[in-house]
Amino acid sequence: MGPQRGELLRSELEISTFEDLLYHYPYRYADRSQITRIGFIDPKSDSVQIAGTLVNITEDGEGRKKRLIATIYDETGRIELLWFQGAQWMKKSLKENTRYIVYGKLNVFNGIINIAHPEIEPWTAETAIPGRQPVYSTTEKLRVRGITNRSFAKLTQALFEKIQQTDVIEVLSADIRNKYTLCGRFQALKWIHYPDSEEHEYIARHRMKWEELFLSQLQIGRLRLQHTAQQGWHFSKVGDLFNEFFNDHLPFQLTNAQKRVLREIRQDTGTGKQMNRLLQGDVGSGKTIVALMSMLLALDNGFQACIMAPTEILSQQHFYSIAELLSEMGIAVKLLTGNVKGKIRKEILQELADGSLRIVVGTHALLEDNVQFKNLGLAVIDEQHRFGVGQRARLWKKNEMPPHILVMTATPIPRTLAMTMYGDLEVSVIDELPPGRQPIKTIASKDSHRTRVMEFLRKEVDKGRQAYIVYPLIEESEKMDYESLMAGYEQVKIWFNENKYRIAMVHGRQDGDERERNMQRFVKGEANVLVATTVIEVGVNVPNASVMLIESAERFGLSQMHQLRGRVGRGAEQSYCILLTGNKISEESYKRIQIMVSTTDGFKIAEEDLAMRGPGDMYGTKQSGLMKFKLADIVQDSDILEETRVAALQLLSDDPALTKPQNQPLRYALSEKNKQSHWGKIS
Ligand code: ADP
Ligand code: MG
């Protein structure tokens, strides 16, 4: 391949070495063992392979609409081939009155069939019929430059002619391969590209999935070992602040689950080792108070503590509720976000550095290098899944010894995901809601019943409650969302007489101040109704709100709806979640709505969500190096995941530092993997 096309391959698909090419797996295989005679093509078939003589190569159209048309015929009929992109390039490379073999997807237009952007090659008596062929992903840019799927097949074919078994390092020892019936690595790679049967394809894919998951489990297992060996600050006592708060300022009795988690945290931080704990608790289970009391524990032992939330609004809310809880104790709490600037910011930075500010609440802004603590002892991270793994790592550098870390998540994490994403953390669960809560009633309704829904909302508001009305997220490009939010807002203003009711609105296009002002009107009870996008999704706490109306609910994911529903049912009143959908919705949306109506169990919902959506989209896991699997899918391959977890634990208990000779290839593979994901040391 020439330098120009080589460069294109690198920039488009990050392929620049033989190895990269080897790991560019086909995503499916095409059956090219048959040549269909043109007159016998079944218009209903998906793809077809034909052979014949090419004639009438003509260009038509102007500028961007330019296209290339050619006809290919055999003794039974003729069919048109079309190119919309790269017409110039194709025109140069095709010859009339020459025989070609052609493979592509059939289009049927007004009863006439054609093939657009086919794979096409000269066809002589000696040309072999391709047989089962790998299909690789390529990009538009590559295709236009003539680097088609067929070119990839040629490259990989040529590559396999060049290399042999010894060129591919086997990372799994013979013991492991035997024990788990896995084929060799070279064989697997060869069969992934060129399986000679479906069985071999399965064996090959299974082996590479196994390897992916095994490496990731090893990586996690080693992290866990590192954690347990990591020295940490010793919180030796429960001191005055903790006790004073507990005795005099705690506004309610802790639930047993909250007490248990606090005990676990005290145990962890009292060992002299660094704590890395994940706190799972459904929305409304009362994680904030646990975080606060853990922070007081840090202060009692002479340390600073911080709590970090993924959005401005959330960190503000944490800030207000923590400041209020501590208001009578004379402990200063300050807020540091990207919006805190100038003199105030300087002051906070100074106070953090000299240790006079002991509790700080903030966003990612806390991670910036110029935020220096005198002695950070505990970092609480709320709603973890919005933070990348790399960001957790930055906390390590905030003190000479890494702080204790408490990660809190309101989205219950299905077991498979917990094993891959958080396998290195200890887990605490708050599995009990504060007493006196009535389960939220969830109702599915359709646009045609809007009048009734709105009347219901008004009735609730008249009782003194507040209501949320949530619209799908506004993204920069999504003008429609914005328009429907505004239209909705206008409608709500009509439903709720403006003279009598007050309506606030928050969305992503407002600047921070405006959004904050509106949010506060609702939080303080000045607004009866909050019209919003999902910016309010996580964490916001308004106990007096009793109705959550989700507009276009068919467009929301399960976990998202569950989070939104968790915004109500926080007080003693009966609360409602109304899922309003269009009159016609897809089967999948219907299923999601039904799940929401049938359960409020966050774990169950998370499992369903994972099964329906797959792990890639959830929890922002795409950014996490831990989750970058080429082939494996933690839902579909959960049995392999379990198997590799056991295997990894066994291997590490036998050779924790991977120093034994037979484990050297593994060690190497891991260090390569670490290089890719840049997270050598994370919490
Ligand atoms: P989340 O776990 O979703 O972050 P919060 O910490 O925001 O939940 O708590 C939800 C609400 O429950 C808050 O209003 C909080 O004051 C209240 N709460 C927390 N713990 C208790 C408890 N033990 N008893 C009564 N109310 C509680
Ligand atoms: Mg919370």
What this model shows, in words?
The chain is of the alpha/beta class and 683 residues long. It has three domains: 3-164, Nucleic acid-binding proteins (OB fold (Dihydrolipoamide Acetyltransferase, E2P)), CATH 2.40.50; 240-430, P-loop containing nucleotide triphosphate hydrolases (Rossmann fold, 3-Layer(aba) Sandwich), CATH 3.40.50.300; 441-599, P-loop containing nucleotide triphosphate hydrolases (Rossmann fold). 40% of the residues lie in helices and 19% in strands. The chain contains 23 helices and 21 strands. A seven-stranded parallel beta sheet has the order 11-12-10-13-14-9-15, sandwiched between helices. A six-stranded parallel beta sheet has the order 16-21-20-17-19-18, with helices on both faces. Helix 19 (558-565) links the parallel strand 20 and strand 21 (576-581). It is globular and about 95 Å long. 40% of the residues are buried. Mean pLDDT is 87; it is low at 619-625 and 678-683. Bound molecules: adenosine-5'-diphosphate and magnesium ion. Magnesium ion binds next to helix 11. Adenosine-5'-diphosphate binds next to helix 11.
